Write a sequence for this structure.
């Protein structure tokens, strides 16, 4: 247990799995997480950013995990 | 695959370092 809820874990897992140097876009997250609303995805992304799990890259809509190289 | 400019790479690394510092801070706070 890493202290994250299921939604947070799902989003973080997808972000970690993206090999692109600019990371994954919020639109792509929405496409992959069809059951999750954009509002929830943005809330989760904000939370993960505040906790330092992820960071924005080329703009405010692309994210990478701090866990990957 | 994508080609990022040197400026984009610099910005990404800067944001990554900031996030790593924030993560360390949160872990120290025990959250």
């Amino acid at each position: 247990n890493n202290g994250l809820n299921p939604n947070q874990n799902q989003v973080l897992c997808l972000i970690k799995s993206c090999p692109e140097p600019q990371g994954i876009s919020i639109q792509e997250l929405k496409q992959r997480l069809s059951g999750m609303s954009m509002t929830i995805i943005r809330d989760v992304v904000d939370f993960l950013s505040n906790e330092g799990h992820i960071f924005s890259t080329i703009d405010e809509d692309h994210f990478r995990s701090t866990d990957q190289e | 695959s994508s080609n990022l400019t040197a400026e984009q790479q610099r910005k990404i690394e800067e944001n990554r370092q900031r996030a790593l510092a924030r993560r360390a801070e949160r872990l120290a706070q025990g959250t």
In short: Chain A touches chain B through 16 residues (CB under 8 Å).
